[in-house]
Design a protein that fits this description.
- The protein has nine helices and twelve strands.
- By secondary structure, it is of the alpha/beta class.
- It is globular.
- The strands form four sheets. The protein has a six-stranded parallel sheet with strand order 2-1-3-4-5-10, sandwiched between helices. The chain has a two-stranded parallel sheet with strand order 6-9. The protein has a two-stranded parallel sheet with strand order 7-12.
- It binds NADP nicotinamide-adenine-dinucleotide phosphate.
- The site of NADP nicotinamide-adenine-dinucleotide phosphate (NAP) has 25 residues, from helix 1, helix 3 and strand 4.
Amino acid sequence: MSVLILGAKGQLGQALKSVQPAEESVIYADIEECDLTQSDAVSTYLHAICPDYVVNCAAYTAVDKAESDRELCYRINRDAVQNIADGLTLLAKDKPGLVPRLIHISTDFVFDGTSKRPYLPGDEPGPVSVYGSSKLAGEMAALTTMPEQVMIIRTAWLYYTEGANFVHTMLRLMAEKPELSVVDDQRGSPTFARSLASAIWKAITRDRFIPGIYHWTDAGEVTWCEFARAIQAEAVERGLLTREIPVHGITTDEYPTAASRPAFSVLDTRKLEQLVGWSTTPWRQNLGIMLDEVKANQN
Ligand SMILES: NC(=O)c1ccc[n+]([C@@H]2O[C@H](COP(=O)([O-])OP(=O)(O)OC[C@H]3O[C@@H](n4cnc5c(N)ncnc54)[C@H](OP(=O)(O)O)[C@@H]3O)[C@@H](O)[C@H]2O)c1
């Protein structure tokens, strides 16, 4: 079986590599190998590789920048997904017997955040940002073009040992500043990219492919402020930070950003847990694993 990972240099791409099953034949590609916004190049690339599975982790993920960079955001989050789906559809026609499947990664930001319970995959989306709207448009592009061969997996608050993310930002700010104020009225589920990567590999290697929309995050929910305090506590315990600083909770209104964000974006993950036969892990446990790796990388 041949698997192609797109957006390989990003957080999730690296996480997929770190837990790649030894028996799989996997090609990792990022923009240097194939710019996904170029439709002809995408089709040519897919025809050269003939993958059984494509996992699309490539995305425009700068949520605030997207508000003033709408065109590029849509080119990557919607048009590139259309290019992949078109390329795979053409490939299936050109290579009888090959049934290429797409696992496309999306986001909790497709929701408006007004739900009083964790969002189910079938709940009505209502993005409140350019990024969220563009990701929803990408989902629609894939689902419309190859409905029988696409799994959309939405995740949230993703972080990895390598890469730019909230955990690394907090570690840096907590080392530099005497105190910190962090938004305390947005709730979600921090997700270690490797846990999502493991779920994706289980879906592929166990051939548990049933088309549709799924959710995957780590288990439990917190506000960004609660997450920041947990990061500090775990980091101090490991000697990654030498002292604790006060971390104050503030409201979203007190921390204006270019993009609006859902106040509540906890996702109900049961559908994918059942599909892959594996349960999500408590977020704090995975945070500890990540920080252990950060520590090991320092030594
Ligand atoms: N990060 C989060 O908190 C979060 C939360 C929910 C959902 N998600 C979703 O999870 C997925 C993985 O996120 P991530 O954090 O791993 O993203 P990431 O670290 O930003 O990685 C995305 C990768 O895609 C590449 N890319 C961008 N434009 C491309 C193009 N035209 N052709 C080929 N590759 C291109 C990027 O390259 P450059 O770096 O050169 O641009 C980067 O290597 C995405 O679908 C994202 O929307 C993320």
